[in-house]
Design brief:
By secondary structure, the chain is of the alpha/beta class. The strands form 3 sheets. Strands 3-2-1-4-5-6-10 form a 7-stranded parallel β-sheet, sandwiched between helices. Strands 7-9-11 form a 3-stranded mixed β-sheet. Helix 3 runs parallel beside helix 4 and helix 7 runs parallel beside helix 9.
Amino acid sequence: MNKVLIIGGSGLIGQSLVQFFINNNFKVGALSRYCKSKNNQFINYAVDVLDYENLELVVSQYDFVINCVGQITNPINECVSINTIGIKNIVEAVKKNGNYLIHLSTVAVYGSASSVTEETAVEPESVYGSLKYFSEYQISQNLKNYVILRISNLYGKFQVKGILAYILRSFHNNEKTLFFDNDGSLKRYYLHINDLSSIIKLILYKRLQGVYNLIGSDFLTIKQLITLSEKVLDYSFDVQYEVKQPIENIDNIDNTKLVEQVDYILQHNIENYLKNFKQ
């Protein structure tokens, strides 16, 4: 039986991946700083990635490692520690034990651009984007058996952060007012977490190497997302924007490199997700 360790198993991505790989007959381990619950379907490890000795001990028991840590966190110093010392520890543990590493990064490393491929020079415009690229750099300079996925915005079960989660939480709480720190022209591709999980499994089986863009089929500005949400939810928001241009705006993200290597079809879209939420 294939053994996969999910580092960052308590977050949106981690929880979804844990359940997905259990359903696909993998032996699954979930590592996070805090074990939220006990489950006889997988092994839960309360280990901090800043603790190398215990981290390496867990990593040594698995064939595949999927790293979900390093997402944006508050306070920001935690994000810095995870994306520097934490990633260094993961890299050293994986290198020692010869695991195949799937590292989840972000398209935010590109900054703003009209069009990007994996060969486009990175120009991050935020602390988060800069830290994620530094994580990529540590991996690419020290490992050979890895794949880095630059992922667009995610949505799905367990989500508490992000634009779509904010909109749906406001709808659920019957709150009309929405605030955004830009003029509404922020553009994002949206990828459902279940589609991400399915694609990761295909990548794992093929043992892809290198860097790949991974995006969803929905490409919307904030204003377009709100219009769609109001239509499907039959609800009206009072939206307030700041007169400020957004950062990390990309008009087109090319994912041809991944599509040519992995045969997948996206099964989810935001409109159907909103319909199911309303029900």
